[in-house]
């Protein structure tokens, strides 16, 4: 385990920990004859023990003041499930009413429903490895791959529909970048929460397709529509060749040649069913790399110094101040 200190020059003070071993002054005890004093191996051992405790006390204080810590590092962990990216559409259209709210008396925006059901999804997969990204007019990196549920929940709860424009290609590029330099083990997917606005620009189609194939990523699109909006699979009644806006996006995604499953979430239960399908499809053991933050051990050093000081005080109180002859 590699350790570092915040103030390296203070390590020079560790030399002070040697002082107890050179301190020879001892309490003088009057006795009638040196020859009559019994040899006490226990006291000799206790003397060296006291000196060792004193040395450790000094060393602990110095390391605490120097800021002993374990530096930030990458560690490999193993999860069971899929290596998935939750990709959220943060365009302002996600503030509109969700279709499943109609007739229920409970008016919810598409983003509110998305957050709530995404939280239910991660709670059903306790060992999944997830990352979080978002997009609107541009892509936003939110959370790297992790198995820590509290971090994933926090990343989902901060999602808001506050961006103008919908750049789907930027969002897909961001989501795909998570898989770069990751081991090719287990299943991978992008869960794409969107109401179907925006488009994939022609100049990026080939590159996006290449990345999907290189990283072997599946795409699940959770389509969250508003009332009276047609889904991605429904053609325009007046023209069987003309699809809705969502349908155009679906055709665009399908045209990439990637593994795509789309779900028309007409109501909250339908969205739950879609997430349940994904839950069944993606369950494999996978290794993943996680960034562990710096760990500060200064408090531990000070606590150890306090405990050792209390031991020294207790030993001091046990010290013999006067030798009494048992026969006298």
TrEMBL record:
Keywords: Membrane, Transmembrane, Transmembrane helix. The chain crosses the membrane at residues 48-68, 299-318. Residues 81-262 form the VWFA domain. InterPro entries: VWF_A, vWFA_dom_sf. SMART domains: VWA (SM00327). This is VWFA domain-containing protein. The lineage of its organism: Bacteria, Candidatus Liptoniibacteriota.
